[in-house]
Design brief:
This protein is α/β, with parallel strands linked by helices and 288 residues long. It is built from 9 helices and 12 strands. The structure holds S-adenosylmethionine (SAM).
Length: 288
């Protein structure tokens, strides 16, 4: 009889003891690490009010993913309605299962989700069309980005504004660069975890960039490439020029303000000049 026959089977360690990476919910970790929907909606409302002297009511969240911003929007006012658009059914379903239950039925009914391309004509025109977390960077040519802006303009109501965030600065062009932050949360087992932003590749000739988000946990396990970003790193003047070419009447940069110690305040104001910050985030606001 071969010796090996009665050899006890190797225990499947993974099945017995799943690692934290095995059970991690990447959308929940992403939300905790990079999203601030309350700050976004406050900026949209304040900016629209300043430009139009009244409150915006209809939000369209392009590239909405988990539609966290839509969920925040409907909480702000009983007349606020939100339309979320994303090609991928997975984050949309995650938001329905995990974020919408935090709303009342009445608030939930004021959200409509579309599993669709952002370049599709909207049924309802928006007061604020938001494209957050640098999502439009996935359009890699001037023609592709202009085409998106043309449709975005058509999807806006009169007096509507398109709001996009952008990131940039010399640090964004460094290859093999990692930015690691410890995030704290209330999620059982994930009270502390590491958020890792990896700038894997930047091609100065095309401005193409390949970036990743990874998460690392206290048991040493890692959720590698939880999110991948294959972007063109647009500059602000390129984007502003394309917005005007697409037919927007004006595009304004809102730059983050600093206090007397030079620390960022989280307040963004219109600007035409700014210091050469090695790592900045700004809003572009384009008016119909
Ligand atoms: C960087 S995520 C942004 C998610 C969310 N806006 C946020 O702030 O975190 C980009 C999202 O855009 C979606 N997407 C990519 N191309 C799209 C397109 N052409 N139309 C609609 N959604 C698209 C992806 O499915 C993904 O959910």
């Amino acid at each position: 009889m071969p010796k090996t026959k009665d050899k006890p089977k190797k225990k499947n360690k993974k099945a017995d003891h799943p690692t934290l990476a095995d059970i991690a919910d990447r959308y929940a970790l992403y939300g905790l690490s990079v999203q601030e929907p309350a700050n976004e909606t406050e900026f949209f409302t304040k900016t629209y009010q300043e430009l139009n002297g009244r409150d915006p009511r209809i939000l369209r969240e392009d590239f909405c993913g988990t539609h966290a911003v839509c969920c925040e929007w409907v909480k702000l006012h009983p007349d606020n309605v939100a339309y979320g658009v994303d090609l991928d059914p997975e984050p949309l379903a995650w938001g329905k299962a995990n974020l919408q239950p935090q709303l009342t039925d009445e608030q939930r009914h004021r959200i409509a989700l579309y599993e669709d391309d952002v370049r599709t004509a909207a049924e309802v025109k928006a007061d604020v069309l938001a494209a957050q977390n640098f999502s439009f960077f996935l359009f890699k040519t001037r023609d592709a980005l202009r085409d998106y802006f043309v449709q975005a303009l058509a999807n806006l109501a009169d007096d509507g504004i398109m709001v996009m965030d952008m990131m940039g600065g010399s640090e964004c062009h460094i290859e093999d660069h990692k930015d690691i932050r410890t995030i704290e949360s209330d999620i059982k087992g994930f009270k502390k975890f590491k958020y890792i932003w990896e700038q894997n590749r930047f091609n100065p000739i095309t401005a193409d960039a390949l970036f990743y988000i990874h998460f690392k946990f206290r048991d040493g396990s890692k959720l590698d490439k939880a999110f991948t970003y294959d972007w063109r790193f647009w500059t602000i003047p390129e984007v502003n020029e394309l917005l005007l070419e697409a037919g927007f009447s004006i595009a304004t940069v809102y730059w983050e303000q600093t206090d007397e110690d030079g620390d960022e305040t989280g307040e963004f104001e219109p600007a035409t000049e700014a210091p050469a910050d090695p790592s900045w985030i700004a809003y572009i606001v384009a008016r119909k």
